[in-house]
Amino acid sequence: MPIGVGIALKVDHDANVKRESAAAELAASEAAQRDADRLAAESADREREEAAERSIRRTSIAQIKASIMEMAESHANS
Questions:
Q1: What is the pTM of this model?
Q2: Which spans in the chain are helix H?
Q3: What angle do CA 21, 27, 31 make, to 5 degrees?
Q4: Could you count the other beta carbons within 10 Å of the beta carbon of residue 55?
């Protein structure tokens, strides 16, 4: 095989390896970004659920306090 052909084949092979490596790095980066986005969405969902639960508990506590006050006033007026 002539030297020129060997060099051309080597240069072509090296370019292919670089392209494949760059494509693999891009795919890994995109996968990592998708995972980060998914985790952020899950965290935001969890925070919304927890906030809703806290709101429900606050409302329940207010209702319980009102009920206790009503019973106490009713008892005091009896």
A1: 0.58
A2: 3-76
A3: 145
A4: 10
